[in-house]
Amino acid sequence: MSENVMDQIVAELRKTATRLYPRRGDLRNVRVVGHTPKPDHFIYDVVVDFMDGSERVAAKVYRAGKGGPQRARDQAHKEFQNLDLVFGEFARKKLPGVPRPLGNFSALGAVVTEKIQGVPLQSMMMKAALLPGYDDNTCLRDAAAKAGEWLRSFHKLTNDAPQPFDAQALLGELETLCLSCRGEGLDDAAIRMILTGAKNSLLKARKSIPSSAVLNDFTPLNIVVNEENVGVCEYGRMSMHGISFNDAATFLAAVEALEKYPFCNRTITSKVQESFLEAYEVSPAEHAIIRVLKMRTLLSMFAQGRGTKESAVRKKVMWATVMKRFIQQAASRSMAPAA
To answer: Whole-model pTM?
Structure first.
């Protein structure tokens, strides 16, 4: 099905390419040069050749799955609407980092945009961990700072009225997650540290916190870094209204979770987190809230890891063992009284 969809996308791009890129001259060819399979979609890499150079295009084609073709169309329609809104806001302020949609392909279950060139921030972190000398002590910091600036701009441009902050509800959710993770080996000492630390962090929390559109998937894997700026290409899970700090917490948790790999050390992850928070510009009280939200996200990752099929028991046990140790270390750093 995805191949047939790509035939239709290529045919449409042949019709619209010269209008989309008027300065490139006459169209020569539209080529699909590769694709990457994902759990619920494919990403196709397309090259549009003109007399005066080429342009790269990304075509995201949703899998039909159990919901059938209509579900794919609905997902594509939602993502296109999200992307169109964010691109318009960023373009109005002449800010970079959001791919331009090249038409509405949601009837085909697809989202087609310009491709932002660069390297995922997560790949940069992995290279810094594995290749001595790759990071010059400014490369990762600069990239993380740009990511923080981008997210701050996104939240400001889509801001809404502040939301009341219910600290007790957050603590209740954290307690439920801790109890859920206990069955996988998270010990009582770590649980007490997490809950006590969260209560102390929220003692002076504000009664309201910023609200805006929320990406819900702002992770190092979805942040593309190039020489000039960063870009974000994933808008499928974006919601129009939510707590802004959830995006920051998701990013910090995803960065810290990379420590579960033995070669990705604390020096690298702390460098990225510190630079990101400094650029995102939060007060100490707001930082305390984000720290608790980050721990909630990490615990959710631990709990979700139990969804492995029973046939892969060994992998399931390995995940639980690694994540248990990691969560306990993260709790000691983030939720200990000294913090």
So the answer is: 0.89
